[in-house]
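Lab notebook: predicted structure, single chain.

Context: the supervisor wants predicted structures on file for every construct in the current expression panel, including those that have not yet been purified. This is the next one on the list. No modifications to the sequence; it matches the entry in the shared construct table.
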Amino acid sequence: MGDVGEILMSVLSTIRVPKPGDRVHKDECALSFASPESEGGLYVCMNSFLGFGSQYVERHHARTGQRAYLHITRTRKAKKEDDNNSGSGHPPKKKPTRLAIGIEGGFDVELDQYEEDVKVVLLPERQEVTSEDLATMPDVVRERVSLSMAGIMAADSVSHALQVQQWDGEVRQESKHAADLKQLDNGLKIPPTGWRCEVCDLQENLWMNLTDGKVLCGRRYFDGSGGNNHALLHFQETGYPLAVKLGTITPDGADVYSYDEDDMVLDSKLAEHLAHFGIDMMTMEKTERTMTELEIAVNQRVGEWEVIQESGTTLRPLFGPGLTGMKNLGNSCYLNSVMQVLFTIPDFQNKYVANIDKIIDEAPSDPTQDFKTQVAKLGYGLLSGDYSKPAPDPGDENGASEPRGDQIGIAPRMFKALVGRGHPEFSTNRQQDAQEFLLHFINMVERNCRSGSNPSEAFRFLVEDRIVCQQSQKAKYTQRVEYIVQLPVPMDQATNTEELQEAERRREEGDSSAPTVRAQIPFTACMAALSEPEILTDFWSSAVQAKTAATKMTRFASFPDHLVIQIKKFTFGLDWVPKKLDVSIDVPDTLDLSALRATGQQPGEELLPEVAPPPLMTPDVEVKAPVLDDSTVSQLCEMGFPLEACRKAVYYTGNTGIDSAMNWIMGHMDDPDFSAPLVLPGGSSGPGTTPTESLSEEHLATIVSMGFSRDQATKALRATSNVLDRAVDWIFSHLDDLESMDVSEGGRSAAESEGGRDPPPGPRVRDGPGKYELFAFISHMGTSTMCGHYVCHIKKDQQWVIFNDQKVCASEKPPKDLGYLYFYRRVTE
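Prediction complete. Output recorded below exactly as produced.
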């Protein structure tokens, strides 16, 4: 080992011991989805602690000169039954206390057992050094290399550290009221069974207040079930903060809610607090579902889950290129579904997968933090077929597990961490809205493709709004960029109204056998609702210099190569509680939108003059921060709306109360500046006052990349207080003003126009016939976008394929009527 010892001595300065804060990538290759379990194992650079599969470690060595790598390989052991699992399909003995998987207090998962082999490998000769070999080497070599090996193996991998952070919010905290809770000596003793709400006699979802022993019903759920809010009303009247859910009390604990802290909490003195009212916690048995179990149950709407996942039939597993499953990292099915669809689109394949060698060659020193590299890695992993192989046999000798197409698949940990970094929602392990993630990812692509091809152009299109003043009959035309068509669901157009009413009547009468009837909505009715004129009752007309009525018509100014349609299933009830519409829509396989193409200004039509409306305040009044009703703002925020949107709603409705503010919010939710900061007309931060030096270079570059000049981008950002979305909209509503300004390379120029007429400047949008065919759809199961499960169906070689995380199977009955996002591609004639 003399030669090896000399080599180690010569490279000792490149061998580091991980320090706190170092990112150790020992679970996944930075450039592929190779892991220690993969063939060839994983090589961890002993200097940067980046991991590389056998395919890429030579490339890293050649590029950096690094020679010492820690080679980690894991080989699966045969499984053994343990105390936590009977092996006969019974649930684990340990009761879950958190809505989480595979972590302390959550649902247990069977961890595969591995034989692990660790040694140092020296490139390029691939000489191997084991721990035993180090014993014969000089002290300085043995000590440094041993400490580095031990440090790498002991360090938390980046993926594990992220997982712990993301699940941190699921842990219940000790209530601040528990230690010194005041309990009234009113002599009240609560029996162990037979409880009823003291106000309405309800016998389920009952909560006992731990201060005075009052037994009252819980909150009403958004689907109409639950209680009548009497326990909450009692807190509002008395201020008594803690309540325990009767029926969940066991020797292990119970569900305790703090109304003051507005969360489920722990009560370390629960046994003492229950004993005060004669309840012996050690003898109580569970008779009601815990809140964790209720949350899981409410996510699994019976019928919808089975139909969308096609769980009623045995599906044929598929393997091969373009048929790769993705592991669920904990509520990451929204990401899995969106990325599966995107990488069936040629623009994304050509940008990232076709150029993967060039992308990897040009990757920065830490490719785990490079957007282009990680997107290319994900795309290649999905399309190559390298990971589309059956999952290893779990060793189930009884054959209890069903072969349902589970694959080795890929786990997009680095990708998810990168695209979610800094985002308040996508950085967590909570369920998210697939449509919001799609737009978030498109936005990242836009920012990272300022030079070269931009695959998000496949979705980009222009919308034309035509507003006609009813008093003067003069018109105003504006254009804006969109990526998704949001299709309304007119529930009053259901074709099975009688069935729906009968089912509702039976439910109200308490008939538990009443069938679940889904509203049947014609797709043509949804399209009609999208295209019908909208009446504007409060439109300021520059022609009559006053507010008047107007009609607004929306049409396509261009048709994209790929059209995304979102069914607006998520709405608000009369009580402003969010809910999901349970509807079936006969979405067609082919679509012709030619009749919805915008026509522009009509012959003989007069345009509204470009005159700004009068300011809201007189010029001699100093503009001060608005006085807003804090209680209304707080109520709106509690409903989940962004703070700035709530402030604007209260401001623009003149502090007239929650109802008018909520109406304003519902009418402006689709505004691009919905959650942008409130800007007062004439204020120092008002439009047109942003100095050039304070404009965001990132925003400027994004607008320039869309085909506008820097001067145009600067003017737009100045006019909209440096808010990107508002600036883009401003450009399209001021195209006439910009005609005299130069268009940057990539925009349309006079040389390209016919007849010598200069077309207005605009973004790079593709246009063509408005005829489309359906090639994919994403479906959602559950009661809201914040819970439930997503799967996608994609048409490949005339065969529908279902992608359900790691399961990839031939689809027998694609539920096209239950989709949430539909993806169409242009039909080329």
